[in-house]
Amino acid sequence: MDRCWLLVIVSIGWIFGAIDASEGDADPLYRECIEQCEKKGSVGASSIQHCQFLSDGVLVDSPWYMQEPLYVQWKQCNCRSDCQYFCMMQQEKEREALGLKPVKYHGKWPFKRSSVLQEPVSAILSALTLVVQFNGWLSFFLLAYYKLPLRPHSGKTYYEFTCLWHIYGLLSMNAWFWGAIFHTRGFDLTEKLDYSSSVALLGFSLILAVLRTFNVKNEASRVMVAAPLLAFLTTHILYLNFYELDYGLNVKVCITMGIAQVLFWAVWAGITHHPSRFKIWAVVVGGAMAILLELYDFPPYKGYVDSHALWHATNIPLAYLWWSFVYEDAKFRTSTITKKSR
């Protein structure tokens, strides 16, 4: 559920950020800087090593085997990307000297690189959230199969939603992994993998929210709920990857599914007598407060920490709290079922 807030917030950010997303790269001085950089291979005192290659990674008048190595393509340290970065830094230094505020370039704030990390703080915090997600899933796995009693004949867990939470855990770890990679290096492939894995997690989270809040235990009923949503998600992801990366459409899909599941959990927490219902409310309220960090979109402090990075920081305790609820829910449902069976 914690990742759902990210998708809703990012969607809102796309709406409000689209207005001035290219203010920096629309500057004629910035464009002139890039053009000269690609010709001369330098920006001020900075020499651009990869400008001996063309922007598509092939040396001028050279055969195919002179292409850039794959690891260089992965780092996106070709001539154009390096020129964009150094020209952006030069422009920002000049703007700072004139007392002007930073502006966005290609839809993003001007972040300072740290080694291969394009947005170092967000990348590191995404990786930490991935660790929390793994720890939460592993704790749930050990609880379900080694600490709680199992059904005597089948060896399965008494908790009816064990398999669903396993799938959620794997999808969540996958989404945060690609989120960390995208913040490390944002280009076409990592962007599509990040969006696709996030939408897959969001869609499955909606399915899980419906099944858990309505306590759907019958397999046929679960299939009836999941099948149309899975078909829609598959179609949507294929559309984004192989037809058109339509940001506007993705905004609508993400906002709809995100708000729907948040409402399911919030209403359920309000009417249920579950002993851990307050953890649900804490995640809902905490996530809502974190939205303020994203809506208050400010430039990165010292070139590293912006509002989105702070959101990542708040997401770590929310992820821990969410898995804590799952852990307690498994214990509560198992205890209830075993008492009834006696």
UniProtKB/TrEMBL annotation:
A biological process (GO) annotation for this entry? GPI anchor biosynthetic process
Q: Which residues form the signal peptide?
A: 1-21
Top-level taxon of the source organism: Eukaryota
Transmembrane stretches, by residue range? 123-146, 158-181, 193-211, 223-243, 249-271, 278-296, 308-327
- Single GO cellular component annotation? Golgi membrane
InterPro entries linked to this entry: Per1-like
Keyword Ion transport tagged:
no
Location of this chain's protein in the cell: Golgi apparatus membrane
Question: What membrane topology does the UniProt entry give?
Answer: Multi-pass membrane protein
Q: Which UniProt keywords apply?
A: Golgi apparatus, GPI-anchor biosynthesis, Membrane, Signal, Transmembrane, Transmembrane helix
Q: Does the keyword rRNA processing apply?
A: no
Task performed by this protein: Involved in the lipid remodeling steps of GPI-anchor maturation.
Q: Into which family does the record put it?
A: Belongs to the PGAP3 family.
Q: Which PANTHER family match?
A: PER1-RELATED, POST-GPI ATTACHMENT TO PROTEINS FACTOR 3
Protein known as:
Post-GPI attachment to proteins factor 3
Recorded source organism is Musa acuminata subsp. malaccensis (Wild banana)
